[in-house]
Amino acid sequence: MFKTVLFPVDQSREAREAAEMVIQIVKNYSARLVILSVLEAPTPEGDESPAPEKMTSPDAVAQLLKSAQSMFAQQGIEAETIEREGKPAFTICDVADEIGADLIVMGCRGTGLTEEGAADSVTNRVINLSPCPILIVP
Question: Dihedral angle at the C-alpha atoms of 112, 116, 120, 126, nearest 10 degrees?
Answer without folding.
Answer: 40
